[in-house]
Amino acid sequence: MTFGSLAFLLFDFALLQLALGLVLERRSPAATWFWLLVLFFAPIVGLPLYLLVGRAPVRRTVRRHGQRLRAQRAALRTLAQRVDASYEREALFSFEPLANLVVGVGGSAPRTGHRVHWIQDGPALVERMSAALRGASRYAYFETYIYEDGDAGRALREELLAAARRGVEVRILCDAVGSSGLSSDYFAAIETHGGRVEWFAPLRFWKKRRRPDLRNHRKVLVVDGRESFVGGFNISDEYVRGDRPRRPWRDTHAHIQGPAALDLEALFLESWAIATGEVVDAHAAEAALQNLAAGDGGERGCAVQVLAGGPEEDWPRLELAYLAGIHAARARLDIATPYFVPSESVCSALAGAALRGVRVRLLLPAPEANDVRLVSWASRSYYADMLDAGVRIFEYGPRMHHAKTLVADGLLSFIGTANLDMRSLRLNYEIATLVYDPAAAAELEESFEGDLRSAREMTTADLAAWSRFQRLRNGLARLLSPLL
After folding, report:
1. Annotated active-site positions, please?
2. Among residues 228, 261, 420, 253, which one has the least CA distance to residue 325?
3. Is the pTM of this model over 0.90?
4. Beta bridge partners of 364
5. Rounded distance between C-alpha atoms, residue 266 and residue 260, angstroms
6. Alpha helix locations (H) across 171-311?
7. Which of these CATH numbers, 3.30.870.10, 3.40.50.720, 1.20.120.1200, 1.10.10.60, describes 61-93+117-293?
8. What is the pLDDT of residues 392-449, one digit of tens each?
9. What does the alpha-carbon distance between residue 483 and residue 54 come to, in Å, rounded to a whole number?
């Protein structure tokens, strides 16, 4: 046997082993077939591509520290429940099954005692976060996907530095890919004054067996266990003044005051453990929580739940929660997402909601405004089925619409970092917040209506006008959905 024949035989054996592993993994049939076809019909390209982005996530870090992390999260939940020992089921309205599911897959219990403010303007968010940091007396934990050096980045860096100088415990966690434009010494002054700065999953292929495409997409700020921020905004001047010739991006963030800050703190510390291997004891913020008024004048305030998802989870938590929210809607459902590449389950849920009489509206960025044109093409391949079922689709054109929100029946508001695509709902480290409150939902619905005035509704006539090339392009983009 020649050396070439032996090498070819070993290569075939390696492909067969990978194929057997693929079949044994808990993947969707579509994803399994995609990778099998790529490996066997284009092995020279398919093998390295699979090794980079196709392998099943390695569930090591969380399991290694799992017992301590679970105990810590349980302690924080117990602490928060002392402030609000029971919640009124009426606060959940028709969404009690959704709330139960969130708890069942590992999210927080629904608790009242919150004030929630929606923020849809970049400068306003920077100012609110800066004000919270100026008021920090004990600790500030900050986690983001993209952090860029610009007006917004420098403003927040100065506030984080000022907090560290006051003796506040400052921890910053940036995704190593999303924030790759920062120099290694960008936060050096903060570290000099005792702050901790870490990078999530640096691309060190020789050191770690973590897939390079599994990123930390969470965007969270927690201050003193009493107030928190979560949503779609990254720290970039695209949101503040726009870069290039475009207008600032349109996004939505939530400023939450109340015990949900403890749940977000626990999730930050889990991210920290995954990134560093270091398990940090949570703060006991009981005094701060007991002094926090439950809304203006001491009323009950909003009921809030927090749920995180990631590749190390046994269940696609966020997808299950999204599906439960869609199934629970009875009258109207408004969804905004920048990247719409849904699973079959989500497609069926949306179609089923429309077919049972729910008014379903999707708000997506137009292809010319989307920063990832390939995703817009893939999104358009789903339009025909959605329109046939009665789902209304609007394309927002003035600027990139990056908000990730769901509002159902004027009662439930769902906001977080996850897009309505398979990567966000099953692979990336994401986070979502569920708010059960008519006033909060009404405010988000009003904002959605305002966005629709700057959007164009898509019709079957629009789809019929697409050329054969456009339809083929959209279909080919959809075939790449396991990678998007």
Report:
1. 217, 219, 224, 402, 404, 409
2. 420
3. no
4. 395
5. 10
6. 188-192, 237-240, 260-276, 286-290
7. 3.30.870.10
8. 999 998 889 999 999 999 999 999 999 999 889 988 999 999 999 999 999 999 999 9
9. 8
